[in-house]
Design a protein that fits this description.
Length: 495
């Protein structure tokens, strides 16, 4: 049995037919950046997931996504300024879920900043202990410790109903008794909790009322949220789950660790061609796939720079451009998720010889953890030889909160108010944030969310904001910028 999909004029995919086998197992969709991996996975997930089509796919002319299993068909098409569902009289019986590592997926579909404020006011009486399946496997996958998340809770259904929120929101209680909502968990924790919750639901369906329909799971570049050791444990876990629950699990991925765990006949390599067509190679042997990935995924560049997250990547790239560090050299900046993960991944890359000979590895962390690094290194002696530097600011979110809200930096405020926030004055946005936000926001993420929402209302994006902030940083944070520039120059010089 197989799920056939046809895509027309969706983002970079002009026309593509793809067949998903539904036999249990894990499958990989891989290829170079921009070849359509994430778009293919997002399109495929519309077979069962009611997602906001405009947010995912925009308003493209003559666009459609069609599916078929045997004689049953369903799909979407865009016409008359609307995305319309298309179904046949024969029902298509298929179960599954979709999860993305960064923006899209089940865990983000109900998330907004008003919900985060509600969750910040919860107390322990609002929870019950989370299912053992989720607690145990979350600890095993992320920390190789089944008891690590023994204090993982989920919101009681009665409380969720009263507050009109989802009943599958999770909380972690730290050793000091602090309650951390799922919205404020690390990206890896948030991602795995959502995946495990969905698997728990599938487990119940497959074991108590299995009607025999195929079940397919789509996961988009989860390696961006997970350390390599956690990724390996996740793959082993999902291999067992795919067999026990009869699931076909598809990843879009760049990960060498993941590809090495998958049979060649289960690897699909996408190639974007010069005529805008996309070819699919299957079976694809891991050595062939990784050879092509090396050329564009950082391992074939002159220098690879590991940073904590996507915002740090944007900031660093703009600084390097402004300081003329990108001339006649190929540099790849890779976000890895969390500063300890970044250091550990740097060690794994160098100790496992994952870089092509002649490629230099550099590490740039957010400045707010600079004082924490020596203690971490002293406890992990194997990392003592790793050299690193830091961004000129603690983090973008904290920098904006420090300079716009805690204490007004008139120059930065004026720049943003004059060049970015043209629809509604920046002062009005900050006052709204002050009125509505009654909780601790020392990480600046809630304020940053307010600013992003305003950018979206003006059809702008975060890069417009970062462009102005980085220009200001280069002009005013000269000591830390020069320190970072010198570090990068030394790494380049040593090539």
């Amino acid at each position: 049995m197989e799920l056939k999909m046809e895509i027309n004029n969706i983002k970079c995919i002009k026309k593509l037919q793809f067949v998903f086998p539904l036999e249990p197992g894990i499958y990989a969709i891989t290829g170079e950046n921009g070849c359509g991996k994430s778009t293919l996975i997002a399109c495929a997930s519309t077979v069962f997931y009611q997602m906001p089509m405009y947010d995912y796919f925009g308003r493209p002319d003559n666009a459609f996504i069609n599916f078929s299993i045997g004689l049953a068909t369903r799909g979407w098409n865009y016409s008359n300024n609307h995305w319309n569902q298309v179904r046949t009289e024969i029902p298509m019986k298929i179960n599954g879920f979709y999860e993305g590592s960064i923006i899209f997926g089940n865990r983000f579909k109900d998330t907004n900043f008003s919900l985060i404020r509600i969750l910040d006011n919860f107390n322990k009486n609002d929870f019950q202990i989370a299912d053992e399946f989720i607690r145990t496997n979350l600890g095993l996958i992320l920390h190789n410790d089944s008891e690590y998340y023994k204090k993982l809770y989920v919101v009681k259904e009665s409380v969720a109903k009263k507050k009109k929120i989802s009943s599958h929101l999770y909380f972690i209680e730290s050793n000091s008794g602090v309650l951390i909502s799922q919205a404020r968990m690390s990206t890896g924790e948030n991602l795995l909790v959502s995946i495990l919750h969905s698997l728990k639901i599938l487990y119940k369906k497959r074991t108590t009322n299995n009607d025999g329909r195929p079940c397919i799971v789509f996961l988009d570049e989860i390696e961006l949220a997970l350390h390599s050791s956690a990724l390996r444990r996740l793959i082993l876990f999902l291999k067992e789950i795919s067999e026990s629950l009869q699931l076909a699990i598809f990843f879009s991925t760049h990960s060498l660790e993941l590809l090495r765990e998958i049979k060649s006949q289960n690897i699909y390599y996408l190639q974007y061609n010069v005529d805008d067509s996309i070819s699919v190679t299957n079976p694809c042997y891991p050595a062939y796939a990784t050879r092509n990935l090396y050329s564009d995924d950082g391992y074939g560049n002159d220098m690879v720079v590991l940073v904590e997250d996507d915002l740090a990547k944007i900031i660093l790239e703009k600084i390097m451009f402004n300081k003329s560090l990108l001339k006649n050299i190929r540099v790849k900046v890779l976000p890895t998720g969390g500063w300890t993960n970044t250091i550990t991944m740097a060690y794994d890359i160098t100790s496992s010889n994952l870089l092509i000979k002649g490629t230099k590895l550099a590490i740039v962390l957010d400045r707010d953890i600079k004082k924490d690094v020596p203690a971490f290194i002293s406890k992990h002696k194997q990392y003592s030889g790793i050299k690193m530097d830091f961004l000129p600011i603690r983090s973008l979110e904290k920098y904006l909160r420090d300079n716009l809200f805690v204490k007004t930096n008139s120059h930065l405020f004026s720049d943003l108010d004059s060049y970015i926030f043209l629809k509604r004055p920046l002062a009005e946005i900050l006052n709204k944030y002050k009125r509505e936000n009654k909780n601790d926001d020392t990480d600046g993420k809630t304020l940053y969310g307010y600013l992003l929402n305003e950018l979206r209302s003006m059809r702008k994006n975060r890069e417009d904001l970062v462009e102005v902030v980085v220009r200001y940083i280069i002009e005013n944070e000269t000591d830390s910028v020069n320190e970072l520039t010198q570090y990068l120059k030394e790494q380049i010089k040593s090539l």
